[in-house]
Amino acid sequence: MSAMRAVAFSPSNQWYDKIQTHFSNHPNRAINTNPHLQFNNTTQNQSNRRNLFPCFSTDASKTPNPPTPLTITSSPLVVVGSANADIYVEIDRLPKEGETISAKNGQTLAGGKGANQAACGGKLSYPTYFVGQVGEDAHGKLITEALQSGGVHLDHLSAVSAAPTGHAVVMLQSDGQNSIIIVGGANMHCWPEKLSDEDLEVVRNAGIVLLQREIPESVNTQVAKAFCSVFPARHFLQFIDQNAAGRSKAAKSAGVPVILDAGGMEAPISQELLNFVDILSPNETELRRLTGMPTESFEQISHAVVKFHKMGVKQVLVKLGSKGSALFVEGEEPIKQSVISAAKVLDTTGAGDTFTASFAVALVEGKSKRECLRFAAAAASLCVQVKGAIPSMPERKSVLNLLQSH
Fold first, then answer.
1. Lowest mean pLDDT segment, chosen from 103-107, 318-322, 344-348
2. Which sign does the torsion angle of CA 378, 384, 390, 395 carry?
3. 72-82: pLDDT as tens digits
4. What is the pLDDT of residue 66?
5. Where along this sequence does the record place binding of K(+) (predicted)?
6. Is 353 a catalytic residue?
7. Less Cβ crowding at N or C end of the chain, within 10 Å?
8. Range in 287-291, 309-313, 385-389 the model is least confident about
9. What is the Cα–Cα distance from 83 to 215, expressed in whole angstroms?
10. Annotated binding-site residue? 365
11. What percent of the chain is modeled with pLDDT above 90?
């Protein structure tokens, strides 16, 4: 994965750094904002019921960010996806075939594309829910505490007894680039054949939904269909180029999108799932693999994107690493986003997830497409300057400060 870096642009006075925190009344389900609920050790029964795994209590010396409550005007970001324990090994270079090398350092940090994106939403002070699975093990506790500290609502994070928490081996080289091997664990196993009414309820009440490909595609399809059933005619893009005062109202009437991050499994994406995806977000490597077309130049990338347009995906958000990013909307000119170098690139792990989640937050807040790209690029620039995935997710204040300084 290429390093993600921030963009240079003029500050916008439309960005704000405070979210009102008034509770909204939900007619069917109470919103849990207690960050100190204890782990439920009840084992999974034969019907594969999922145990509620809201969160662990943390060390008293650490003060977690409380989950951001919903306001009257905000609908939550709901992330459905994977949670991994990332096992880092820092090396000068990748080993050759049959070769054993020594790592300079090693540690285990919370990660996984779904958990990364949820943590990013929480740290950006937007009300965020995470729907996912971990095992009843130490890695599950690690991930839960990290999400809790990021201010994520964990009512829909479940523990399963029949599979360990997913994990990834991250081989981090001295230039900040990485190679990753994923073991699915609870991310790929023990999901119920049909998601619970409670999980689908939070999806239906979402303002925006983020999916990735590190969980079974059948789960992603259920979620996308559930969200689309609420907004059967979702022409949401009509609102984002209107004036700022009208964007929020138009967003509510038009609906907002399901975003599918293309990262994860190598298999093609089914047409059934693509039918319910508003924005597909691959990096250039994933775009090449999924289309079978070259992506060495911007022209080639544009041709590859057309293949997804023909499959019904109206928008494709391509992450181009050090070359920036581009949003391709069918029938419109691409919107390109350039980058500026981060002070120092320490670790690109999670940069793409930061970009995607930050774009989603800006979009659901009613920003223009160009503003969304800028906000996401600024967040990704901050991400690559810190080691780890979830630990590197920036807070809203830091992103706004970067926006104001360029």
1. 344-348
2. negative
3. 456 899 999 99
4. 80
5. 347, 349, 383, 386, 388, 392
6. yes
7. C
8. 385-389
9. 9
10. no
11. 62
Paired tokens of 335 = 């919107």
Determine the Cα–Cα distance for residues 389 and 34; give it in Å rounded to an integer: 24
Each residue's pLDDT tens digit, 216-259? 999 999 999 988 766 544 444 444 444 444 443 433 334 458 99
Q: Beta strand pairing status for 315-319 and 279-281?
A: parallel
Instruction: Estimate to the nearest angstrom the gap between the alpha carbon of 298 and the chain centroid.
Output: 25
With 0-12 / 13-18 / 19 or more C-beta atoms within 10 angstroms meaning exposed / middle / buried, residue 254 is middle
User: What would the two tokens of residue 364 be?
Assistant: 């659901």
For 303-406, list the strands marked E by DSSP: 315-319, 325-329, 335-337
What is the number of other CB atoms lying within 10 angstroms of the CB of residue 397? Answer: 13
Residue 158 has pLDDT above 50, yes or no: yes
CA-angle at 73, arms to 69 and 75, nearest 5°: 60
Nearest alpha-carbon partner for 234 in 133, 172, 315: 315
Q: What is the mean pLDDT of the chain?
A: 80
Known binder of ligand: residue 106? Answer: no
Does residue 112 have a known ligand-binding role?
A: yes
Residues, the chain, total? 406
Looking at residue 329, its pLDDT comes to 96
Task: Say whether 104 counts as a known binding-site residue.
Answer: no
Burial class (CB in 10 A: 0-12, 13-18, 19+), 352: buried
Query: For residues 214 and 350, which has the higher predicted lDDT (pLDDT)?
Result: 214
Note the maximum CA span of the chain: 62
Tokens of 290: 């999924």
The pLDDT of residue 318 is 98
In sequence order, which residues have a C-beta less than 8 Å from that of residue 268 and are 6 or more positions away?
290
Q: Classify residue 283 by its DSSP letter.
A: B
Task: Record the tokens describing residue 1, joined without a space.
Answer: 């994965």
* Residue 114 marked in a binding site: yes
319 is in an annotated binding site: yes
Gap between the Cα atoms of 114 and 357, Å rounded: 10
Helix or strand run (H / E) with residue 168: strand 166-173
Question: Do 94 and 171 touch, CB atoms closer than 8 A?
Answer: yes
The span from the CA of 185 to the CA of 107, in Å, is 19
DSSP-assigned beta bridge partners for residue 91:
173
Q: Please check the confidence at residue 170 and state whether its pLDDT lies above 90.
A: no
Q: Is 353 annotated as a binding residue?
A: yes
Contact between 183 and 162 (Cβ < 8 Å) = no
Measured distance CA(390)–CA(143) in Å, rounded: 9
Given the residues 155, 261, 278, 353, the one annotated as active site: 353
